[in-house]
Amino acid sequence: MKSILSTFFLAFFCLFTAQAQFVIEMNDGSTLNHEGNVTFSKNGSEDAWSIGDTYSSETDIKDILSISIAEPAMAPAKIGDYYYSDGTWSDGGLISIDDHGLNAVWADEKPAPLAGKTVVGIVFQTNASRIAETENTNGFVNGYVVAVKNAHGTQKNTTWWTTDYNFNALSGTKLASSWYANVKGYENTMKVQDKYSTRMYMVPAFDWTLNDFPLDAPETSSGWFLPSTGQVWDMIANLCGHEAANVLKGWQTKGYDATYYCAENVSYNVIDMFNATMEKIADEDKEVLVINDANHPFTSLWTSNPYDSESACIFNIGINGLVECMAEWFDGDCFARPVLAF
Fold first, then answer.
1. In DSSP terms, which residues pair with 144 in a beta bridge?
2. Do 196 and 278 contact (CB within 8 A), yes or no?
3. CA-CA distances (angstroms) from residue 299 to 232, 294, 315?
4. Which of 85, 108, 277, 335 could form a disulfide bond with 118, CB atoms 3.0-4.6 angstroms apart?
């Protein structure tokens, strides 16, 4: 005679459609995944039942601890989504966006992060053509995330790029088209780490990013790294409004020095646009972008690309609408905003 337990399971599963997905937890702690209708089979004349079209001792009813409906798969990541410490993400309010960050449409009311989860970053790029080859090879094909905090020491929120005035781990990047094309922040950061190894204190922007950053990167990610020129480019284009995106699009193919000719003002506060992506995150869990100082009403963001033998490439975005490609001396103070691939 069929057991009470098997009767319960049979009644329970008949309520679900063929598309349901279930997680079966066994008494020994192992789990099995099952998709579709759940059927039960009897072991001949014996009073033993299991899940499946034919009886199997591996899924005998008496060995099952619990059966639950599997959590639905996450929707593909979108620009602006919250990215959590467990490697998952949730809606950040983006409704639609065109290539290059143009014509972004956002929900009137930004969704809040999911309760009980820790936001470590905001998704800023999901376009497959803008994901570096190394990331694709390593399986990080969903896109890039910018951290909700800066990488810095205890004395100030900015940092130097390097104290080594003979820095030669990376080649300089000058042309606007080269700035845009370079999405190799991870490779840049790893080359610097390999070069300086036990002397990472000489490259503090990289050191704070790799070794002392307070936000834990999920195991399913690349880990934090200092973004390249092209990655900060995409960050501004996709998170800082249509006008900024349109300005940057116009520079993508320019064959001249970015620091001489790539500076324009849009009609709004670009820093506020970036910070709006984090507005639903508690103040203690984020660091918003701020201006450098009263005489420099913009945020200066380090990239992982040197400009020449004594300076590195930075982006300036300002409260007065400034969007600018610039270079800063190696020992200048700028903000390091780590990113990761996932």
1. 125, 341
2. no
3. 13, 11, 8
4. 85
What is the Cα–Cα distance from 115 to 96, expressed in whole angstroms?
A: 25
CB under 8 Å to 7, separation ≥6 — which residues? none
Residue with tokens 């639609």: 96
Cα distances (angstroms) measured from residue 289 to each of 211, 267, 298, 327:
22, 19, 9, 19
Q: Which residues pair with 68 in a beta bridge?
A: 23
Q: How many CB atoms lie within 10 A of CB 268?
A: 16
Return the pLDDT at 54. 77
Per-residue pLDDT, 316: 98
Give the mean pLDDT of 158-167: 97
The model's confidence at residue 323, banded by pLDDT at 50, 70 and 90, is very high
Locate 33 and state its tokens: 């995944």
- Quote the mean pLDDT of the chain: 90
| pTM of the model as a whole | 0.82
Identify the three-state secondary structure at position 322. strand
Say if CB 242 and CB 106 are below 8 A apart.
no
Q: For residues 314 and 267, is the Cβ–Cβ distance under 8 A?
A: no
Q: Which of 214, 195, 192, 217 is nearest to 205 (CA)?
A: 192
Order of strands across the sheet with 322-329?
263-265, 322-329, 311-318, 298-306
